[in-house]
Automatic annotation (TrEMBL):
Protein name in UniProt: D-isomer specific 2-hydroxyacid dehydrogenase NAD-binding domain-containing protein
Keyword Secreted annotated: no
Residues covered by the D-isomer specific 2-hydroxyacid dehydrogenase NAD-binding domain: 103-275
Domain of life: Bacteria
GO terms, molecular function: NAD binding; oxidoreductase activity
Keywords noted in UniProt: NAD, Oxidoreductase
InterPro entries associated with the record: D-isomer_DH_NAD-bd, NAD(P)-bd_dom_sf
Length: 310
């Protein structure tokens, strides 16, 4: 059984997998032009969805694809086949995402950016900071990553409310409501954190109508997908004071074009899609666990339903 590794860090992945299981036949691609020739002889593909989608478009067919990304949007294009098993990176991003969100939640409460501006202008800034204790945090997306984030935020005495595809009980959330109740929930939230995947139901979710319902002083953090936010509506919401601030890790187009208004929007911080990067060590461990499951006919962790899109 030959395994294609289609990754920018293919040499690192190959070394980790070989160390763990020396008997594996690994085919790492050091350059893009090597991929098609190697893929033709491999039933299992491990790698980036953008690279693997290009191989599928060339008529190459795997039996199983393990994505190294949590998002698998490139592999869901309408012109691509769906007659193989697909699993996404799952269960390895929760801690990283929690650290990212805590960074910017605390930075907002402690007025980090305004204090830096005060220092640059040689102005003593003794404004009192806020605290996360008692803040109502709306986590929009309560899957594996959202659950890990919630577990790490709960000890800070925040009020955690979740939004998912359907309502359910899910500790440590005070409640988890269905997506149809999002507009009602934003009116009470101090922080709106989007962790939703890219599906038709999440496109343009954050638009001017939703922003108009937001509580004065609310902050939006988008670490899900850029397609969830209507760009012009966000710029207007910040300009009109409907939102106090926004932190965007993801955008509709990446890298962001030089002329995009986000670059110069007051109150908006861009973090360059760095919230929860795939680390080769945990990803290699996940792949090996899924490889064993695949070989024994068991369910794969993070297995994707093409019908649902995640």
């Amino acid at each position: 059984m030959r395994i294609l590794i289609a990754e920018q860090q293919c040499a690192t992945y190959a070394a980790l997998l070989h160390e763990a299981q020396p008997a594996l036949t690994l085919c790492p691609a050091a350059t893009l032009d090597q991929l098609p020739g190697l893929a033709a002889g491999c039933d299992i593909w491990l790698g980036q969805p953008d690279l693997l989608a290009a191989l599928l478009r060339q008529g190459l067919r795997p039996q199983w694809v393990q994505s190294t990304w949590a998002g698998i949007t490139p592999l869901l294009a309408a012109d691509l086949p769906r007659d193989y098993r697909l699993s996404r990176a799952s269960g390895i991003f929760g801690e990283l995402m929690a650290e990212y969100l805590l960074t910017y939640l605390l930075a907002h409460e402690r007025q980090l950016l305004s204090r830096m501006a005060s220092q640059n202008s040689k102005r003593w800034d003794d404004c009192l900071p806020g605290t996360l204790a008692g803040r109502r945090v709306l986590l929009i997306g309560c899957g594996a990553i959202g659950q890990q984030v919630a577990l790490r935020l709960a000890p800070l005495a925040v009020q955690l409310v979740g939004v998912a595809s359907t309502a359910r009980e899910q500790p440590p959330f005070l409640q988890v409501v269905g997506l149809e109740q999002l507009a009602d929930q934003v009116a009470q939230a101090d922080y709106l954190i989007n962790l939703l995947p890219d599906t038709p139901a999440t496109h343009n979710l954050f638009d001017r109508r939703l922003f108009a319902r937001c509580k004065p002083g609310a902050v939006l953090i988008n670490a899900g997908r850029g397609s969830a936010v209507v760009d012009d509506d966000l710029v207007a919401a910040l300009a009109d004071g409907q939102l106090a601030a926004a932190v965007l890790d993801v955008c509709r187009e990446e890298p962001l074009p030089a002329g995009h208004p986000f670059w110069q929007t007051p109150g908006l911080l861009l973090t360059g899609h760095t919230a929860a990067p795939t680390l080769p060590g945990p990803m290699a461990e996940l792949f090996l666990r899924n490889l064993q499951a695949y070989q024994t006919g068991q369910a794969l962790r993070g297995e994707v339903s093409f019908a649902r899109g995640y």
